[in-house]
Amino acid sequence: MSVEWVSQGRVNLLGLSRPELEAFVASIGSKPFRARQLMQWIYGRGESRFEAMTDLAKDFRALLAERAEIRAPEIVTTQRSADGTRKWLLRADATQAIEMVFIPEEGRGTLCISSQVGCALDCSFCSTAQQGFNRNLTTAEIVGQVWLAARELERDFVPAPESSPGQRPITNIVLMGMGEPLANFRNVVPALRVFTDDFGFDISRRRVTLSTSGLVPQIYRLAEEGNVALAVSLHAPTDELRNTLVPINRKHPIAELLEACWHYLDEQNGRSVTFEYVMLEGVNDQPEHARGLVRLLKGHPAKLNLIPFNPFPGTHYRRSSAATIQRFRDELLSHGVLATVRRTRGDDIDAACGQLAGRVQDRTTVRLGNKLIGVAVQS
Ligand code: SAH
Fold it and tell me: What pTM, to 2 d.p., does this model score?
């Protein structure tokens, strides 16, 4: 159990994976199996009040109320797009905020969450990088995002007619918001456990995706300890170019990165790795780049996800044209490399990168991360 929760007086149960919750429950003199009952209340029903958990003994509830709490991040603003996309700005502390996005589609709903306040990795096309690194989110803040979104969404959720009984609005979780999840390994891994736990959010491990800029040693660690799908921000077919876009490449070049990815799939029995590729006009969007990707990925269990660049104030990059992106995709497909193009959603609520910060800043004193990359789906 991490010290930060205990030191706040009450233990925030959203920060504990099942074994940790069992240990906590035992530490206050109850049977470990009570942890599962508690989790059903917390994650199955979205309950935060111990007194409402009526099948737990009264004394136990009283003790929980004294020693524990269920506290998610506080909502600063909520926005809703005409296409159903929702965006929440959540308070991280007095001056910082993080973002979370929900993207509904036919028969599925994807929640994009953050793992850090800011980011230390300095990718040149990413607006979070401009903000610098502030701090890691705690496990409770990572799990709390999903818990909060589930509660908010379930209020007015109408399941699709053909969906299975008990269908909930969030079917997929992606760690593609602010931050580098593998740089916050210690807090992210227990959160992944809660997402996939039968008594947690009970989401299939293939429907939880962690996206990394390529922290190679942590990919090996994740192969041992994690249990989710992997996405990797590739963005360039050569080290020379990738060094300029994703500086961590100087430390962990492409060949090492790909080796780690294939190892991950072997260990996890995974189907494929998704490689994200931001389309930057005149930088990485030419046929030679597509051919370079073919050389790297052909014959491997890989899918490319082409992301039209979202500009933000101060950037010198431009988004590749739709025609260029289409040609790029065709080139990949014609050589047998799977590729999809991410479709931007929620434009009417300024959900693209860099659009959010200014507006909210005008209304509040909160200094915000100016990055929102989650509002995109594969087409
Ligand atoms: N740090 C992790 C996860 C967060 S970013 C990572 O790097 O993978 C999620 C995706 O959005 C990454 O592929 C990232 O490179 C991409 N991205 C960042 N800035 C972007 C921008 N301005 N336009 C489009 N995609 C961007």
Answer: 0.91
Residue 101's pLDDT band (boundaries 50, 70, 90)? very high
For ligand 1, whether the C-beta of 353 sits within 6 Å is yes
Distance 135 CA to ligand 1 centre (A): 18
Domain assignment present for residue 169? The answer is yes
310 and 261 in one domain?
A: yes
Q: How far is the CA of 364 from the centre of ligand 1 (A)?
A: 26
Whole-angstrom distance, CA of residue 115 vs CA of residue 195: 14
The answer to whether residue 270 sits within a structural domain is yes
Residue 112 annotated among the catalytic residues of the structure: no
C-alpha count within 13 angstroms, C-beta hemisphere, residue 185: 14
CATH code at position 28 = 1.10.150.530
Residue 213 alpha carbon, nearest atom of ligand 1? 7
Of 69, 90, 114, at which residue does a domain stop? 69
Catalytic option among 22, 69, 99, 141: 99
Name the burial class of residue 334, with classes exposed (0-12), middle (13-18) and buried (19+) by CB atoms within 10 angstroms of its CB: exposed
Kindly state whether residue 2 falls inside one of the protein's structural domains. Answer: no
Residues in the chain: 379
Which runs of E-coded beta strand occur in the chain?
Answer: 11-12, 68-69, 74-80, 86-91, 96-105, 108-112, 116-118, 133-136, 172-175, 208-212, 229-233, 273-279, 302-308, 338-344, 367-368, 376-378
Of all protein residues, the one whose alpha carbon is nearest to atom 19 of ligand 1 is: 126
Range with the poorest average pLDDT among 97-106, 256-265, 346-355? 346-355
Question: Total domain count for the chain?
Answer: 2
CA dist., res. 304 & res. 307, Å (int): 9
Ligand 1: does its nearest atom lie under 6 Å from the Cβ of 99?
A: no
- 241 and 215 in one domain? yes
Same domain, 64 and 121: no
Task: Tell me the per-residue pLDDT of 3-39, one tens digit each, with 9 for 90 and over.
Answer: 444 545 899 999 999 999 999 999 999 998 999 999 9
Query: Is 99 among the residues known to form the active site?
Result: yes
User: Last residue of some domain: 53, 69, 85?
Assistant: 69
State the distance from the centre of ligand 1 to the C-alpha of 34, rounded, in angstroms. 40
Q: Are residues 47 and 146 in the same domain?
A: no
Q: Which domain holds residue 272?
A: 74-376
Task: State the distance from the centre of ligand 1 to the C-alpha of 278, rounded, in angstroms.
Answer: 8
Residue 6 lies in a domain: no
